[in-house]
Amino acid sequence: MAFFRSLQDSAFTDWFLGSSSIWTYPTVLTLHTVGMAILVGASFVVNLRILQVGSAVPPHRLRPLYRFVWIGFAVNLLSGVVLFVTQAADRVADPVFGVKMASIALALGFGLWVKRRAIDPPDAPHMTDARSRALAAAALGLWTVAIVAGRLMAYLKA
Amino acid sequence: MQQFSAWVESTRLSQALFDTTWLWPACESLHFVGLCMLIGGAGLLDLRLIGLFRGLSIRDVKALMPWAIAGFVINAVTGLLFLIMQPHLYLGSAVWWSKVAFLAVAATNALFFESRLAVPALALAPDADTPRPLKIVGAVSLFSWFAALYCGRMLPYLGTGN
Question: What ipTM was assigned to the predicted interfaces of this complex?
């Protein structure tokens, strides 16, 4: 706990949050939103396809979308770490933050599981199997929970 | 504009909405979900129009459009609610008007695609490269949606009206 407190009270935090420049907090926050649009946008498309939206699309052809998933995730991991550091002590004590992290971990895990089952095989059938559809539905719900939790963190401050 | 903004804020509707404390964060959350639906669906079509994702036919990718449009409608409704609740944050802000301008570009571009380019585009083979007009439409679309996102997210920091 003392470690997280020291991060939150560090000179970096003072500079990052106290600066009047738009290139510190506002830009990192905006990058976090751009990354979300790419990561969750691409995940929505893949998971909707697994749920038979756009069922004429061969599932295997959506494989390159996972590149966008990883790009969006990398942007948000980096920007997220910076945002976390500046509020580290508050966040580790915040159950809403825990919900957000758990939802993201599960949504990504389910997304990868779906990828292996229904996207990776070059001859993946157009009609996806029931387990893949269940995983995709769960992933869609979990991404939505992650977004709502992320937004509410700004209101439910400890 | 300041008078108009003051009038909107004085209406019972504006006050009743703003006094509903959960409504603002709920709209923000929905605005983000709608954004992901819009960028996901429209973005894939844009990338295909630019010439990426060969093997997907434009006709098939368009099956996602109802989801992108649903995302746009969610964001139009929640955006309108923000505007009714706190018009002074937006109507006097050059950044907000820039966002409106980018949205107008994106919408005009989409309507232009639908009315002038969609028929030949839908006839393209799944593996076909796209002609230059389609590449331009796809690039303009991607740019204007992300520019609108940038303006919206940076609005509180790039100076607001009062």
Answer: 0.94
